Each structure stands twice: as C-alpha cells, then as structure tokens.
Amino acid sequence: MTRVRVRGAAVALTCIALAACSSTSSGGATGGPVGGSHAITVYAASSLKDVFTLLGKNFSAANPGTTVTFSFGASSTLGQQLAQGAPADVFASASNNTMQAAVTAGAVSSFSVFATNVLEVATPPDNPGQVQALSDLARAGVTVAVCQPAVPCGAAATQLFAKAGLTVHPVSQEVDVKAVLTKVTLGEVDAGVVYVTDVLAAGTKVHGVLIPADTNVSTSYPIGVVTASKEQTTAAAFVAYVLSPAGSAALTAAGFGPA
Q: What is the mean pLDDT for each group of 10 consecutive residues in the chain (259 residues)?
C-alpha cells in the first residue's frame, strides 16, 4: 500500500516539475520576480525539506537568474535564530506558535498559512515491536522516539498522547522530525511519531500506522517574509509561489492537507 502511495506522489511531483520548467518567467503567473539576478535564503521546517526543495527548483527554473537556498531544521530553532538576527529572507514554520513568536520578536511582520499536516506512527518495515495501533506505543517493551517538546512535532505528540489518554515513555527525544524518522529507518527504535508526509516520503524504508482522525492532531504551516530581508520582492514572490495553485498541487502530492 505504501508503494502505491509513493508512486502516485512521484508521478504528480514529476508533472508539477515539468509544468514549472516549461512555463515562462512571469511574476503574475508564477509568483516569481520579473528579470534580474536574485538570491534568497529560506528557513523552513525539516518536514518541508522534500517538497520545498522541489518548489525551489521550480521557482528558479521559472525565473532564470534566481537562486533559492534552504536551511531546514526545527521550527523553534530556526525562529530563535531569526530573532537573533540570522540572515534569511523567508521563514516557513510547522507551527503557528513558532511563527507568532517570530512576529513578536520583529523577525517577521506578517504571514499566511499554506498547508496542514497530521501525525502518523512510523515503524521499521519488519515492525519488530508489532505496533498495530497508537495504543501499542504505551505497551511495555516498545521503544518510541519523538521530537523534543519545544519542537512542533514534539508538542503535537504530547498533545496526541494526552488526547488518546496514553502514557508513553519515549526512549529518545530528537531535535526534529527527520531525526525521529532516521531513528526508525535505522531500526534503533520500534516506532516514531512523525508526520504523514514523512511516512509517505520514506516509502518502503518504513511501515506506517495510521492514527484515527478523531484522535489525531493537526498542525498548520505558516510562511512569511523576513523583516530584515534585503530581497523583499523576491522573497515575497517565493511566498506567493508557495501559496499559488502550483505550490498547493506540490504540497498535496507530498501528502500535506489544505490550509
């Protein structure tokens, strides 16, 4: 079942990439700047790595002379770096709270929510802990990895366990969701709490255990231009591209939900 989902996503992403590469450079149509040489740095949540890398390539292809560089990591860490003056042009977070903190610090002036995500349990392909449901994470002997509590995926996991009435004792709290996924793919834990998009992107490297919708937790993804950016126009154009139909299509293909 996982292989079918991944194949479908790969086809959709390929079509999106081809469409972008064949388009002309038009600020109104693509969300890109009109002419000139531009370079922007985007700080983005680690769960956005695959789809934003694609969007960056498409944006650059549609706007020759424009370069997009990414710094992926925990939203909370990236937000703190921006508040301390780290040079960046766009911030995309996996948490409204983290983005609001950046606004309060003056690092971002305004933002828009462009996608949502929900949690899923990931296990190694052979599922050594025999994890069949969320409740199995509380079973004695099952080793579980989650994100650190300050990280959006960690806060979401904490909320999830409380909502499900489970007492889970993680053996590992990682810096971001990709680190949790790595723990799972290496077989260092029986299960990890990640996003559905991470399970989809990992393909056959993991086995996904779905969480019932009435128990699951959703997180929103906001994006905004960094106040101190020296490339305000280009940064705003990239944000517009993420919010455009082409950006939404790529996000949907990667498993993200609508804003």
A: 34 37 36 72 97 97 95 96 97 97 96 98 98 98 97 96 98 97 98 98 97 97 98 97 98 97
Domain of 174, in residue numbers? 117-218
Element (H, E) at 42: strand 38-45
Burial class (CB in 10 A: 0-12, 13-18, 19+), 214: exposed
CA angle 125, 131, 134 (to 5 degrees): 125
This prediction has a pTM of: 0.85
Shared-domain flag, residues 110 and 234: yes
Cβ contacts of residue 124 below 8 Å, gap of 6+? Answer: 184, 185, 187, 190, 206, 207
Closest CA to 189 of 249, 121, 252: 121
Same domain, 184 and 247: no
Query: Does residue 259 form part of some domain?
Result: no
Pair 225, 215: CB distance under 8 Å: no
Residues 15 and 141 in one domain: no
Q: How many domains does the chain have?
A: 2
User: Residue 258: inside a domain, yes or no?
Assistant: no
**Cβ(48)–Cβ(95) under 8 Å?**
no
Listed residue (123, 75, 83, 77) closest to 102, CA to CA: 83
Separation between Cα atoms, residue 80 and residue 71, nearest integer Å: 13
